[in-house]
Amino acid sequence: MNKKLTFTIFGGTGDLTFRKLLPALYNMSVTSKRESVGQVIIIGRRDYTSEQYRVIARDWVEKFARLPYTEKDYDRLAAGVFYYKMDFTDEKAYTQLNEFYEEMEAESHIFYFAVAPRFFSSIVTGLAHVEHACHGKVVLEKPFGENLTAAKELNEKMESFFRPDNIYRIDHYLGKEMVRNIQTIRFANPIFSGVWDAEHIDCIQISALEEVGVETRGGYYDHSGAMKDMVQNHLFQILSIVAMEQPGDLMLAGEEMHREQIRVLSSLNMPEDIEDSLVLGQYRGYREEKAVAEDSLTESYAAMKVFLDNDRWKDMPFYIRTGKKLGHREMQVLVVFKTAAPHVQSNILNIKIQPTEGVYLQFNIKKPGEEDEIAQAKMDFCQSCSFINQMNTPEAYERLLGACVRGERFWFSQWDQIEASWKYVDEIRKRYHDKKLPVYAYEPGSYGPHAADKMLEKAGDHWLD
Ligand SMILES: NC(=O)C1=CN([C@@H]2O[C@H](COP(=O)(O)OP(=O)(O)OC[C@H]3O[C@@H](n4cnc5c(N)ncnc54)[C@H](OP(=O)(O)O)[C@@H]3O)[C@@H](O)[C@H]2O)C=CC1
Ligand SMILES: O=C1O[C@H](COP(=O)(O)O)[C@@H](O)[C@H](O)[C@H]1O
After folding, report:
1. Per-residue pLDDT tens for 277-305?
2. How do residues 108-155 score in pLDDT, each as one tens digit?
3. Which SS3 state, helix, strand or coil, does residue 10 take?
4. Which residue from 63, 56, 115, 55 is spatially nearest to 89, judged by alpha carbons?
5. How many CB atoms lie within 10 A of CB 355?
6. Is 245 annotated as a binding residue?
7. Of 107, 198, 396, 417, which cross-links 316 as Cys (Cβ 3.0–4.6 Å)?
8. Of all atoms in ligand 2, which is nearest to the CA of residue 234?
9. pLDDT recorded at residue 390
10. At what angle do helices 396-406 and 22-30 cross, to 10 degrees?
11. Residue 447, class by beta-carbon neighbours within 10 Å (0-12 exposed, 13-18 middle, 19+ buried)?
12. For atom 3 of ligand 2, which residue has the closest CA?
């Protein structure tokens, strides 16, 4: 193991670390890539020894790792994982942390902020007491800031301590296999690229539905809500990839793609008819969740109808929705094409992001037999059904941690993307609340509030599940 490189996770007893980061490190360890992240320091305020932490982490890794779990592989990973107890808001505690790093012979650092954004600033202040910290890399979880003003302040603070090109703003949806695939499906197939516009498409629906509620994360989530937790980052990233112009190279994930994404985000239209463009909801029982305010108005569901002010997408709605405690878990991009004639059904392309990864295409054929009728052919390509694909496809966090170590910055969000998204999300939320529009209640296990269905009905559409 490269002892000198030290990978420190602030928020090491949180949901993200247990459910995503440790399983990713395990997968990297099995595929021998963990050598590159060196020793792992877990920072938490709970009273654990390293040994106790390793025992707790074991169950999570066993449950959530992509690759088959074995004791031997886990023990190899765990031997390089050390728990360090501290309150990361206590500036004085960083002097002792510095001593701990000296004992651990830490020389170069990657700091991972797996905490709510309101803590980022105190951690950076504290890291000023850690030798060489400012030469290290930092990975920042989303949402970056809690609004545009806070995000700008935070960005200045981050860039005054770390070198700007050592700041990695992670959006793990950018590491998902089928999100990376959208570009290829769009641009490498003339059957799609030639008709990818408002002239041929009726609407595009982007859905990220979750079955789980806020679980143990009430404290974080109640300050955030669906718009900041999912829409401002993950869903706007996907929207911008779906709607962007072709970057120079079909498979390119660099500067050019980034520029095209920004152009999309800058052309988001701010609706005048806010009541017909945004619906916020909260599942029944949300206020009884641990660490949630009993009179909370935080939304656990958001549905939007958005338009882009550009030639390609003029007057074509993008429908976006996300929520917790819904009927099932599904993340997909559905492209509904215009019909060839009024009595003929639409062609539908469904890019399935998770849990199944694949592509579904519905098109029209003559019904077999003597009748002169039209029927639908449904072609369903399941990429993740193949064991070989599963074994060879890294999880998002696995991919992004590796990219950070290698310095591949194009896999991460850039500041101007974040800024453009915040501008829009801040303003649309303000308009919703200024008009005193309700946060609609919905039943757990449903598809969200009826108001979200009505929003589409009014526009002559409906959600496709
Ligand atoms: N969970 C997920 O699936 C995803 C989360 N994220 C992002 O990751 C970030 C963290 O989310 P998540 O892990 O879910 O949140 P959690 O609330 O589960 O975890 C927060 C962590 O911060 C620790 N913490 C809080 N205050 C202190 C303190 N003063 N000193 C030391 N430790 C402290 C908590 O410790 P303690 O255990 O003692 O409370 C806990 O380990 C958020 O920004 C979120 O948006 C991003 C993608 C996915
Ligand atoms: O960033 C977040 O993402 C998760 C959903 O991630 P997925 O990879 O399971 O789709 C979401 O549950 C969480 O609230 C949010 O912070």
Report:
1. 999 999 999 999 999 999 999 999 999 99
2. 999 999 998 899 999 999 999 999 999 999 999 999 999 999 999 999
3. strand
4. 115
5. 10
6. no
7. 198
8. 1
9. 78
10. 70
11. buried
12. 230
Domains of the chain: residue spans and CATH: 4-169 (3.40.50.720), 173-394+413-457 (3.30.360.10)
| DSSP state letters, 24-42 | HHHHHHHTT-GGGG-EEEE
pTM of the model: 0.93
Residue 35: pLDDT above 80? no
Beta strands in 211-283 (DSSP E): 278-283
CA of 45 to the centre of ligand 1 (A): 11
ipTM (interface pTM): 0.96
For helices 22-30 and 50-64, give the axis angle rounded to 10 degrees: 80
Give me 76's structure tokens: 């190899």
Taking the chain, what is the end-to-end CA distance rounded to the nearest angstrom? 47
Q: Which residues line ligand 2 (CB under 6 A)?
A: 210, 229, 331
Six-digit token string for 355: 């849990």
Residues whose CB is less than 8 angstroms from the CB of residue 2 and which lie 6 or more positions away in sequence, other chains included = 35, 36, 38
What number of other Cβ atoms are within 10 A of residue 345's Cβ? 15
Which residues are within 8 A (CB) of 99 and not within 5 positions of it... i.e. 6 or more apart?
none
Hey, which residues are catalytic here? 234
412 annotated as ligand-binding: no
Residue 396's Cβ-count burial label (10 Å; 0-12, 13-18, 19+) is: buried
The pair phi, psi for residue 136, each rounded to 5°, is -85, 180
Closest ligand to 176 CA?
2
How far, in Å, from the CA of 249 to the mean position of ligand 1? 38
pLDDT at position 1 is: 44
Q: How far apart are CA 218 and CA 215, in angstroms?
A: 7
**330-337 vs 348-354, strand pairing mode:** antiparallel
Residue nearest to atom 40 of ligand 1 (CA): 14
Q: How far is the CA of 83 from the centre of ligand 2 (A)?
A: 25
Q: Are 7 and 38 in contact (CB under 8 A)?
A: yes
- The torsion angle over the Cα atoms of residues 348, 172, 118 and 293, rounded to 10 degrees, is 50
How far, in Å, CA of 387 to CA of 367, rounded? Answer: 35
Atom of ligand 2 nearest to the CA of 16: 16
- Number of Cβ within a 10 Å radius of residue 30: 20
Q: Dump pLDDT digits (tens) for 183-218.
A: 999 999 999 999 999 999 999 999 999 999 999 999
**Most trustworthy range by pLDDT among 4-13, 231-240, 384-393:** 231-240
Percent of the chain beyond pLDDT 90?
88
Q: Is 363 a residue whose pLDDT tops 70?
A: yes
